[in-house]
Design a protein that fits this description.
alpha+beta, five-stranded mixed beta sheet
Length: about 260
């Protein structure tokens, strides 16, 4: 009987102890998860800080490069280009004894002026500040008239307000066009620019000889394009097959959203 009484008291004590232990385990788990959550949040913050730091560093490098290009571009465009233009006008007013020499000189001066203008665009596209990306691309379209059929298609009310984004996209398009003219043996290039509230999409393709995307070694032009897409924190993909042309697809988060 006494043993029974003792057993009767042991059960509640055991239950209490079990509940106490379970409570301790529950508290420990809760504390553990809170600690893990704090660590996870801290890691996310640290990753964001590192990403932001890398972004700022990358943008700083690009900004320095573009500032230097801008300085050189303005020097070539405003000084050398204007001097050549004035010289061309003066030469036309000079009476030369040798007509052949005059004809050669008058033919070479416009070519020199065009070369200077092209070099200025390579260094820094001054006109993009005044015309915007689309307006400047339309000028490029006219200048390429005798070389290649360059078509531009944009979504309705397409506009990029961020100047650095405009500049980097122009550099990408410029690099693609340079590669097409030099290597692709293409007769046509089509550019599609589409903008939504969230993303900016760029598709540029040619009808040239193409290449095997899985085997080709990237040249400086393709590497420059890859670098600039990364600088915009975008994604891109090359598509090409021999004799099937080449396409470049780019998707960038819209800063104007």
């Amino acid at each position: 009987m006494e043993k029974y009484e003792n057993f009767k008291y042991i059960i509640p004590y055991t239950v209490v102890i079990i509940l106490f232990v379970v409570g301790l385990i529950f508290v420990f788990i809760k504390i553990h998860f809170k600690a893990q959550k704090k660590i996870f949040i801290a890691q996310i913050k640290q990753n964001k800080l590192e990403i932001n730091h890398q972004k700022e560093l990358l943008n700083s490098i690009i900004q320095v490069q573009e500032d230097e290009r801008k300085r050189m571009g303005r020097l070539i465009h405003d000084d050398i280009g204007n001097r050549i233009h004035i010289l061309s006008i003066c030469v036309q007013q000079i009476e030369m004894n040798e007509c052949r020499s005059k004809d050669i000189l008058l033919k070479q001066l416009p070519l020199l002026s065009d070369a200077t203008r092209t070099l200025a665009h390579e260094m820094y596209p001054v006109e993009i500040e005044y015309l915007g990306l689309i307006g400047f691309l339309e000028e490029i379209q006219i200048s390429l008239f005798n070389k290649i059929d360059f078509q531009i298609c944009t979504s309705e009310n397409f506009e990029i307000k961020d100047f650095q984004t405009q500049l980097q996209i122009f550099r990408i398009i410029q690099e693609f066009l340079n590669n097409v003219i030099k290597y692709a043996n293409a007769t046509a290039v089509t550019l599609f620019l589409r903008q939504t509230n969230t993303y900016l999409s760029v598709l540029i393709c040619d009808n040239g000889i193409g290449f095997n995307a899985s085997k080709v070694k990237k040249g400086m032009g393709m590497k420059n394009i890859d670098f600039r897409v990364k600088a915009l924190f975008g994604k891109h993909k090359w598509k090409s097959k021999p004799n099937k042309g080449t396409s470049l697809i780019i998707k960038i988060k819209n800063k104007d959203a």
